[in-house]
Amino acid sequence: MSKKIRQLVDPSVALTFVPANINDDSLDAENFSYHSSIIGIRKLYSEKGLKFQFPNSDDAQNTLHLHSADWIAPAIFVTTLYVSQYPDAVSLALSIVANYASELFGNDKESKCQLTIYVETETGKSRQVDFNGPPDALGDVQKLVREISKNG
After folding, report:
1. Nearest to residue 54, comparing CAs of 5, 2, 121, 4?
2. Which of 4, 87, 100, 116 is most open to solvent, judged by the fewest CB atoms within 10 Å of its CB?
3. What global pTM score does this model have?
4. What is the pLDDT of residues 77-93, one digit of tens each?
5. Of 92, 80, 10, 75, which Cα lies nearest the Cα of 37?
6. Residue 8: in which H helix or E strand, if any?
């Protein structure tokens, strides 16, 4: 997966949104799809000045609308280099996701958000961090990303 993304973008310059169907080898980049949550998150990232990119273009043209009680955040790909150069970027990205999901859920404490972050280590291997829980616990994901970026 890491190799496929690197062929399409330079992930050391910005957060990279990962298509939901990135592992489908039969697809080319024009047919990548993103969870519909990308629309709101992309807007919020722009408003906060957070750099991001898509592997297939400058926009998420194809979106998936899933009917679920849980909210699925767009998957993100970061490199160790990016995390070291922009240490606050991942924190800001996760804060935006947490605030967005909290506002979406309101007082519903049962609802959960799902998030996947792929962290490419210095060796070029990717580690996948999956989160499925309440938005206010997303800070734990940030700690894991930093730990992976430091220790591989």
Report:
1. 5
2. 87
3. 0.76
4. 888 888 888 888 888 98
5. 75
6. helix 2-8
71-72 and 113-120 strand pairing: parallel
| Helix and strand element counts for the chain (H, E) | 5, 8
Asked whether the predicted pLDDT for residue 95 surpasses 60, the reply is yes
Q: Which structural domain, as residue segments, surrounds residue 19?
A: 2-151
Token look-up 């206010």 returns: 136
Angle between the N-to-C axes of helices 87-105 and 139-151, in degrees from 0 to 180, rounded to the nearest 10: 160
Specify whether the backbone of 121 is left (phi greater than 0), alpha (psi in -120 to 50) or beta. Answer: beta
User: How many domains does the structure of the chain reveal?
Assistant: 1
Separation of alpha carbons 56 and 115, rounded Å: 21
Answer whether 13's CB lies under 8 Å from 51's CB.
yes
